[in-house]
Amino acid sequence: MDTERFPQRGPLPPRPERALVFSNHASRDTHVPVLRQVCEAAGIQLDVAGVASGQVVDNPGELLPRYDLVFAKARAAIESMAAGCAVVQCDSFGAGRMVTPDNFHELRGRNFGFTTMKMPLTVDHLAGQVRLYDPAASRALSDRVREECSLDHAVEQLLEHYEDALQWGRAPSVGAEDAKRAALFLETEIPHARAGREVVDLRRELDKLRGELERVRGERDTAKASLTMAKDRLKEAKALLGRVQMRRSWWDRLTGGRQ
Fold first, then answer.
1. Read out DSSP for 36-49?
2. Vertex 23, ends 89 and 58: CA angle to 5°?
3. Which one, of 106, 57, 102, lies nearest residue 80 by Cα?
């Protein structure tokens, strides 16, 4: 995940006040009703974001920091943790656990995905996971995710693997032809990896330019609105002047031009 697109929220409150179901499968026909029961019993406001609910989010990086607790899986779980939220694994097919410092390594090894979500979607199980809410632990996880799961870190790891493979390809124990082919392949792929990092940088720059474009468009629309208002006022002023002139002409004819 891109840490610039998912800013970290401030400290979590002592108990969760707002929760989000962050899934394209979440709807009243899947796991949202049971989560509403859990949250209502705990006095937590629950919102839903995703395709099935009709609440499509263009920029989840702006949405997530508004919530204390998120029900999500896989990439959505990673993004939610990066934003500083507490995360309970959950989706339409089953439930998992509250992500904690103790189980983070295990769950990350399977991408916080469906293979780690074997528990039933019941009020009792999910309520028990919500009770594990720990602001300090969630903050520590957020810092860890932002360091270990960032795009920059992933690209650096990829480059290290390529470099290691290149060194292996040059080892004397490897056949000359195999080493030559491996080295040629990897030397071709490394620029692709570096290009991937450049793409990330370019995408960030593009996002900034898009923001600037939206600002300029907003100023343009404001200027257009002001110009339209000015034209309307000018039209009204001309109409008023015409009426005044008409009355003046009528008065001159009536009085023979005498004041």
1. HHHHHHHT-EEEEE
2. 135
3. 57
Fold of 18-148: Rossmann fold (3.40.50)
Residue 253 has pLDDT above 60, yes or no: yes
pLDDT digits (tens, 9 = 90+) for 19-47: 999 999 999 999 999 999 999 999 999 99
Contact 85, 69 (CB under 8 A): yes
Q: Nearest 5°: phi and psi at 233?
A: -65, -35
Q: How far is CA 112 from CA 73, 88, 89, 99, in A?
A: 6, 10, 7, 9
Q: What is the pLDDT of residues 151-185, one digit of tens each?
A: 777 777 777 776 777 676 555 555 666 666 666 66
Distance set, CA 52 to CA 14, 26, 75 (Å)? 31, 6, 17
Q: Please name which of 56, 92, 57 lies closest in space to residue 74, comparing C-alpha atoms.
A: 92
Question: Which one, of 69, 75, 77, 3, lies nearest residue 38 by Cα?
Answer: 69
pLDDT at position 254: 74
pLDDT tens digit string along 139-148?
A: 999 999 999 9
Reference 66, options 52, 45, 51, 36; nearest CA is 45
Q: How many CA atoms lie within 13 A of 77 on its CB side?
A: 26
Domain residue extents for the chain: 18-148, 150-259
One-letter identity of residue 37: Q
